[in-house]
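Researcher: I'd like a candidate sequence for this fold, 206 residues long. If you have to choose between options at a position, lean toward the conservative one.
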């Protein structure tokens, strides 16, 4: 398998991160963006990059940062589950809600019904407010409390729905097709609020 170059591993940001993390003072170590994990696992794999004078490709480390982009007290987060069912979807929903509420102090979390179809203007299902109380026991049940669906939706229409609901951060739970759908929201035909105004923040970006 070909080793990706550094540009392929780049993670976009929305702008300078200036808001102190709510995790500060809790004893958890923050990660430095300069610390990266090499994509190459052998010396032989590094040689083409070194001989060409190119930087060694490296992954950004996952974990909490000391400064974040959004103020959690002023943001709305959205969660959507897409594609086929798999074990543990309700556990993921529950974990996201608990972490957002208790660790990051986010007070408004919305669950969008039936996958990306729930973000389409024609959807008749309003998003569900999610709280620690409403998700407390959902891990005992199979499936996903939000429902799911397959197939693409118009990216610009999905962005409009997110903007109307005031969503800044969207967690899209699913497989490869879900990630492609999330990417299409970022790359719609018109300028996206994700990049231009910082009003939305996709789950695969800081």
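Model: Candidate sequence:
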């Amino acid at each position: 398998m070909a080793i990706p170059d550094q540009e392929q591993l780049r993670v976009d940001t929305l702008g300078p991160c200036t808001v102190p993390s709510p995790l500060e003072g809790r004893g958890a170590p923050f990660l430095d963006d300069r610390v990266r994990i090499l994509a190459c696992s052998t010396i032989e794999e590094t040689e083409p990059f070194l001989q060409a004078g190119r930087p060694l490709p490296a992954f950004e480390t996952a974990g909490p940062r000391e400064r974040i982009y959004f103020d959690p007290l002023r943001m709305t987060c959205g969660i959507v589950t897409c594609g086929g069912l798999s074990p543990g979807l309700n556990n993921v929903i529950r974990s996201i809600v608990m972490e957002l509420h208790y660790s990051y102090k986010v007070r408004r979390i919305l669950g969008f019904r039936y996958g990306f179809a729930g973000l389409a203007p024609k959807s008749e299902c309003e998003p569900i407010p999610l709280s620690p109380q409403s998700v407390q026991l959902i891990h005992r049940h199979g499936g996903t409390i939000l429902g799911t669906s397959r197939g693409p939706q118009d990216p610009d229409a999905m962005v409009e729905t997110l903007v109307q609901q005031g969503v800044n951060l969207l967690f899209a739970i699913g497989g490869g097709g879900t990630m492609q759908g999330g990417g299409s929201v970022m790359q719609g035909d018109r300028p996206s609020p994700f990049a231009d105004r910082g009003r939305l923040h996709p789950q695969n970006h800081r």
